[in-house]
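Ticket #4471: complex job returned nothing on first submit. Input attached below:
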Amino acid sequence: MKSEPPAPRTLFEKVWRDHVVRPATASTPAVLYVDLHLVHEVTSPQAFTRLRERGLKVRRPDRTVATMDHSTPTTPRDEHGRIPIGDALAAAQLAQLQRNCTDFGIELHELGAEQQGIVHVIGPELGLTGPGMTIVCGDSHTSTHGAFGALAFGIGTSEVGHVLATQCLLQRRPKTMEVRVEGALRPGVTAKDIILAVIAKIGIGGGTGHVIEYTGPAIRALGMEERMTVCNMSIEGGARAGMIAPDDTTFEYVAGRPRTPQGAAWDAALGRWRALPTDEGATYDRTVTISASELAPMITYGTNPGMGMRIDAPIPRPDSTSDSADRAALEKALHYMDLRPGERLLGRRVDVVFVGSCTNSRISDLRLAAGVLRGRKVAPGVRMLVVPGSQQVKRQAEAEGLHTIFREAGAEWREAGCSMCIAMNGDSLAPGQYAVSTSNRNFEGRQGKGSRTFLASPLTAAASAVRGAIADARELSDV
Amino acid sequence: MSDTITPVRTIESPYVVLDAQNVDTDQIIPARFLKVTDRAGLGDALFADWRYDEDGSPRADFVLNRPEARGAEILVAGHNFGCGSSREHAPWALRGYGFRAVVSTRFADIFHSNALKNGLLPVTIPSDVHERLVSWPVNGTRPALKIDVGSETLTLPDGTDVHFPIESFAKHCLLEGVDEMGYLLNAAAEIAAYEEAHP
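Support reply: We reran it on our side without changes. The output follows.
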């Protein structure tokens, strides 16, 4: 065997190399092995149909886990403890997933089950997600799992079929981008504000063709759930995947979860995981640096996640941009949002506040929101939904009494699911309504036809619910 | 069912211009249309919120509803087309409507990959060419484009040839009508060996 020169490598390069089944050539992409395939009801049915048409089995049902999250209602359970599904189309889609999982022998966390929840919440929660893995799902926010030092990215339904049948994907190697976050966050500024600032800086297409690695002291200081929030929105900057090198924070989170390696297997895994961080001297194709200490709470004003700014800033003026296409895009966005250039968003009335989604529905997010709402009320005329990311998050929140805080404040405490982030499950805004939302997309109509979305952190969302208008949580005590 | 799909070799058609940047997959097909278990009929939902009024009637000012859009198989759209979600329903809707190619200065990664697997050709061109296409003068006949996959050439209405890149394997699949599943299934022995070495 030839010995390899000890070239310094990035985290991404190490995980990639570990999973190459057949190397790429000039005429063919690499065959890349997938350690974990997560499945949900919306992007999988046509893939299972393809398998049936070709008489194929699922190659590794033991590496495949399904849940119901996108089209599921989050309305309260009935007297039998069941969650009624009012929408016939959604019911049929969910029944199809159940049938597919039964026929192909796949573990399914069905609606209302003990471990059901948003696919990117339950993976880490169950210990399915781990450092150094390759993880895919027919969902662009699969980048979330990169918080553990996994290479995790969203795929289309054709590729869902490829992974079901072969446990592999055909991939050209992406480029790498380092997003270095220097310094330390100031009080009241959160992981969500970091990632909204990153996307505002690089633009929504800025990471296209790249895998991002988030580095620097401000990233190291984040807990795992905060790291997931950062990696989750990598795709909103155009990057298919975002990664953070695993460290003791990671290992502490992973240890003892139901599906985490135990005993000798744990010790062996830990040895491998400690070798994953990017080597000294390894290089990235691009590096972007931001300073955490200069960040403030962020909010979006437009119709893509790159249209974000400090919460106290004026909305940019289209005539201040030199690029005619950018100017047209901003004008179109402000027209849709019915906002004026130069206007400030603080104090602007909102109709709905949504705390939830794979970006911000974990227990730490709910604790932040509850901390603001404790002893306060949601302003009259404002509807606030708090939607836990999983049944486990829901149980934890209830054990801590957070649901009581939400309910006493006048917010709705719901069942687990994607809810108002995607508005295909009964939870949506009415046309023209404004929402402060902890989700990840403010596209036109994303939260329902004609909906207008301001993306922000759980702190900003909760403070805005109390004020009935966009508010900076750091100033709330002055109310 | 075989491992083959319909080959895509040349496309020649008038084009329509959707002059918007960052057209995301929620615009291409809103999420409420994703509660399906097959891929048929999604062409009607293409650009639904831009294309139809509240009562479902076509908006006269939307480009696909104009007479000159009829039968066009090529869509010319702004920068960063297909950003957002991984929904393959986006290329299914574009194909269902009748488009066979989308021309832009940049495509989002997942959309680009999904499009190629459905015989929808993403054609990436420089911004100066894009600007020319957007403002091409209409003199009685609709401007048309010719796309040749084999030579990676886009021919403009005035006969000018512009090169566009296609990844080599994707090109092979398009020209020969091969799908990736068959290629991966043929790697079964190597996959098994990998699994053996990485339990």
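The two ends of chain A are 71 Å apart (CA to CA). Closing as resolved unless it happens again.
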